[in-house]
Amino acid sequence: MSCPDEMDVVNIASARGDEELQPLLLRKILVGACTGASMPMTKIVSLVKKETSNGGAYYCFNTVDLDGFVNDKTQCAPTIFVTTIKQDLAQRKGDFEIRGEGPFAVRARCWEGGEVLLLKRDGVWWRTASIIPDEVPEVKFTWSGIDQAVRAGCRGDDLR
Hints:
By secondary structure, the protein is α+β, with helices and mostly antiparallel strands. It is built from four helices and eight strands. The chain folds into two domains: 6-82, no CATH class; 89-159. It has helices spanning 6-13, 18-30, 85-91, 146-155, and strands at residues 44-51, 57-63, 75-78, 96-101, 105-110, 115-121, 124-130, 138-140. The longest helix is centred in the first third of the chain and has 13 residues, at 18-30.
C-alpha cells in the first residue's frame, strides 16, 4: 500500500489502534487516495523513516520500475506495509495454486505473491520463482513431486 499524498499517510500513521486504523485504511483506498494492500511487491529506493506528531511511524520513498528507472515522484506508506526481502521471506509459508500442468512444465501462482515455473529440459528439472522484484533465480532441483517443488519456490527457498 502507498499514497502519493504524504498527508494521507500521516493520517493513517496517526491512527490509535485497529478500531481507528481499519475504517481509515478502507476510506483512503475507496476514494482512491491510496493503493490497496494487494499491490504487487515493488522495489523502492531513497527510504526515509518519518514520524507523526503523536509518534506514529511511516516511510517515504521512490519506486523503481521494471526497467530499473527511479520514479521521481515520492510516495509514502505506513510502516506495516514496508518490508525487507529478508522479512518477507521469513513470513512466507509457500501456499500456491496450480495454473497449468503438463509433462514438461508446471506453472503456479503463489498466494503470498509471485509465480513459480517448473520446466523439464533434457531430463533435468529447473525452477524459476518470480516472487521478489529483480530476483528471479533459475535453479536445478531434484524432482520430489509438484507439491514440494512449488511450495519451496513460493517460500523463496532459492533466494535464501
